[in-house]
Amino acid sequence: MPEHTAALNRKAYHEYTIEEHIEAGIVLLGTEIKSIRAGKVSLQEAYARVEKGEAWLIGVTIAPLAAGNRYNHEPRRIRKLLLHRDEIDELVGRTKTKGLTLVPLRLYIDEKGHAKVELGLAKGKQQHDKRRIIAERDARRDMDREMAGVRRGR
Fold it and tell me: What is the pTM (predicted TM-score) of this model?
């Protein structure tokens, strides 16, 4: 079974500079994994936090299953992340000292059928950084457009 991306957080790349990527498992209920496989997930406004030696995923919306019954899940509940102790300890140190934050970048189903979240150790961008990146992207796009015109013989 190939890897399947259920949700992307495109806004995270605009709002943050990603310094490192970390993969973590998620503790889910049965109806939650079914909703994730159906792609009914949103990572907007989501973040991760380490509290009392455990990592938690906060603000992820997993829509309730349409065919669910009274055992359906709460859409925005806090979910535990599965990480090794040394990974959690490193995250605590990096987020406390350097002022970094944990942002979910992508939620996906791996080859074994397990739900995973790709976290980014991120530093917030300033407004002027965002404007500079947009200007560079626009300049690159204009340059590519001009080069394409030259190649076509215009």
Answer: 0.76
CA nearest to 80, candidates 108, 112, 115: 115
**Residue 19's domain spans which residues?**
4-124
Domain containing residue 83: CATH number: 2.40.280.10
In a domain, 74, yes or no: yes
**Helices and strands in the chain: count of H runs, count of E runs:** 4, 9
| pLDDT at site 119 | 94
Q: Is residue 130 part of a domain?
A: no
Beta strands 61-62 and 101-109, pairing class:
unpaired
Number of Cβ within a 10 Å radius of residue 120 = 23
| Longest CA pairwise span in the chain (Å) | 66
12 and 120 Cβ atoms separated by less than 8 Å: yes
Q: How many domains does the chain have?
A: 1
Handedness of CA 47, 45, 78, 105 (dihedral sign): negative
Residue at token pair 């065919």: 67
Tell me which residue has tokens 């055992």: 71
